[in-house]
DNA sequence: GGCACAATGGAAACCGCTTTCCAAGGGGGA
DNA sequence: TCCCCCTTGGAAAGCGGTTTCCATTGTGCC
């Protein structure tokens, strides 16, 4: 590959001058030389070696994003938001998918840290295991000690800037809205108990029901994805009139399960989700959910990560209950 | 950040030895020193600086993948397939989204090339503009001249390894299948005319109809995304009995448009798509489509890119027509 | 016991670029 | 006209690793 030295030689200038012309610098270079360098670079098809630049400058122009599952619209939206924000700053994005394995998440932080990325974004729920979280914290701390920046979308458990959706509050508000429709027998497709997001939403929902003096909902655990919702829906008690899936993809799975079983939604059972992923608009019946501004959250997380803050800032993001056809008024 | 030199000092060995212990080498290091180095690295929390490694080794462990839109399930599936394949090889992935701007695609190739990524994957349709394609080819050629590898999912227009879905053949077969159901008046939600994938599918479909002696379909151009399908569906002539959207997300948009307009699918109009994106299973009515093994294609493209081939290899991928409820037999 | 050779450790060159530090040239003010 | 300061170009020292090339030591064999 053609190097800066080749360009400098061809232009008959020093390495320093070539560097100043081509790769940005505070220093001025005379018009004549500048033109010669640019022409030489063009003729030779020079492309700066970013690895070398990164090494010399001590900081690169790439950021890392770690998500659980890129094919899940929730993560896709978050990642897209972050990537758009990154693009406006001239940053490249390295994406890692953990496929929901917390160990993978730690490994990615280590790898991204080794890459000396400018910032890493951890997108997605934490797990309840303090041991795992501890190791992740350690890895992050080491990375940040070396000047790295980090932010997280999810729970404020890592000691870094965090965009934290109000999972409990959102779920509670949803519960009140559904109860307001006359429902009393609920089930929660609760996801995995150790997933903090899932647990929070479940707890928020159940807590609100309790405050209203309603019976405790049936808790149906399962995976946090579409198939998890599909499968969990089939374990719901027959007397339940309203099912809350702790995220939209699970709710979509549940809708499918009901459709297959010939159970009508919302006539026979009401269904609600959480997140308001964009693809919901194409599902029938339209799904009641709690809207989260996913793209903005992703973008915001990147901003936070890049900002020069002293102490980690935690930003709460409220969810907004959106009632749609998948729930009906009872009685 | 702690450097290899710190580790070497702490362990009381040379830089060379430390490097050999920690970052892999053909050379053996005695057990005693090896242990000392490992302990030192562990105590200090050493993480190799990949930028430096990349520079010294002349090749990094990152691949680049450029997609049009990561929130589109089609690209998400392809990217996920490629990322899984990359992970098994210990490669990291840098993702760029062009948001369907061909210039962005060229820019990303330049940037990734500057990053000295091991390989770049261009995922998604080419555009018909020979000028743009030419510039992209140039950029790719330069990258490959420097030892970079490249592959493409889409049309074989770039002179690189290509995984090429059989768009024309798939669409043609779909047309025959639909005609076999008794339809004669077709419309094609054709996407943008300059998008080769869209144009090929459209041409394949229309060509098959012509061979069957059926009237030419109504061609309705528009954007290649869900909203494009939604909008295009409303411009379809009333006498059309069967609508082919050149990709699934457009078909999903069309289904939504019909639902909103009170047009029943398939009773009033049949609808078919292309790709068989995984999310289809949750739409009603279930969409007839042409199945493409998206994840495999992504993985395969990565393999091709990494393989040591002399001449670019082009691999055709056949599509399989999948008839589902969204189409009905006529008469 | 002596020698060739394999195994192992270290010094130093190098990867490609940035940036400090100098040197030299040029312009403006006194 | 002289001096000082501001510009501009270049030499060279890193950035943090890898790897070649030696030097040294230990081993097997005659």
Task: Based on the model shown, name its key terms.
homodimer, 331 residues, alpha/beta, Rossmann fold, 3 domains, four-stranded parallel beta sheet, 12 helices, 12 strands, 16% strand, DNA-binding, transcription regulation (chains A, B), DNA-binding transcription factor activity (chains A, B)
Give a short overview.
Chains A, B: It holds the Pfam family Peripla_BP_3. With 331 residues, chain A is of the alpha/beta class. Helices cover 45% and strands 16% of the residues of chain A.
CATH architecture of the largest domain in chain A: 3-Layer(aba) Sandwich
Tally the beta strands of chain A. 12
Q: Predict the CATH topology of the largest domain in chain A.
A: Rossmann fold
- What is the 3D shape of chain A? elongated
- Multimerization state: homodimer
Largest interface, C-beta closer than 8 angstroms, per-chain residues: A-B, 52 and 51 residues
Residue stretches of chain A low in confidence (pLDDT < 50, at least 5 long) are: none
Radius of gyration of chain A using CA atoms only: 25 Å
Q: How many domains in all of chain A?
A: 3
How many DSSP helices of chain A?
Answer: 12
SS-derived structural category of chain A: alpha/beta
Instruction: State the helicity of chain A in percent bands.
Output: 40-55%
Mean pLDDT of chain A: 94
Order of helices and strands of chain A: HHHHEHEHEHEEHEHEHEHEEHEE
Strand content of chain A: 15-25%
GO molecular function, one term (chains A, B): transcription cis-regulatory region binding
InterPro entries (chains A, B): HTH_LacI, LacI/GalR-like_sensor, Lambda_DNA-bd_dom_sf, Peripla_BP_I
Protein name (chains A, B): Transcriptional regulator, LacI family
Domain HTH lacI-type (chains A, B): 2-57
């Amino acid at each position: 590959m053609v190097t800066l030295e080749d360009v400098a030689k061809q232009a008959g200038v020093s390495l320093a001058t070539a560097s100043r012309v081509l790769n940005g610098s505070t220093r001025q270079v005379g018009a004549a030389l500048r033109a010669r360098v640019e022409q030489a670079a063009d003729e030779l098809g020079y492309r700066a070696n970013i690895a070398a630049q990164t090494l010399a400058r001590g900081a690169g122009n790439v950021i890392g994003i770690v998500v659980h599952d890129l094919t899940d619209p929730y993560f896709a939206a978050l990642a897209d938001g972050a990537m758009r924000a990154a693009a406006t700053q001239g940053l490249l994005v390295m994406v890692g998918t953990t496929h929901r394995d917390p160990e993978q998440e730690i490994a990615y932080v280590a790898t991204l840290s080794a890459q000396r990325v400018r910032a890493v974004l951890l997108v997605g729920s934490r797990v309840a295991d303090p041991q795992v979280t501890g190791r992740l914290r350690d890895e992050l701390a080491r990375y940040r000690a070396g000047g790295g920046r980090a932010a997280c979308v999810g729970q404020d458990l890592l000691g870094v800037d965090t965009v934290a959706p109000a999972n409990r509050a959102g779920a509670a508000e949803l519960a009140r809205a559904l109860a307001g429709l006359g429902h009393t027998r609920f089930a929660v497709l609760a996801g995995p108990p150790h997933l903090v997001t899932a647990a929070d939403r479940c707890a928020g929902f159940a807590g609100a029901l309790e405050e209203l003096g309603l019976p405790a909902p049936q808790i149906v655990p399962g995976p946090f994805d579409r198939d998890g919702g599909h499968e969990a829906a089939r374990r719901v008690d027959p007397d339940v009139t309203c099912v809350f899936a702790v995220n939209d993809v699970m709710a979509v799975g549940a809708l499918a399960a009901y459709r297959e079983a010939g159970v009508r939604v919302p006539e026979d059972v009401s269904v609600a989700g959480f997140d308001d992923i964009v693809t919901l608009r194409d599902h029938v019946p339209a799904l009641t959910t709690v809207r989260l501004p996913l793209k903005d959250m992703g973008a915001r997380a990147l901003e936070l990560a890049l900002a020069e803050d002293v102490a980690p800032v935690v930003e709460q993001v409220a969810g907004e209950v959106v009632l749609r056809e998948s729930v009906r008024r009872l009685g």
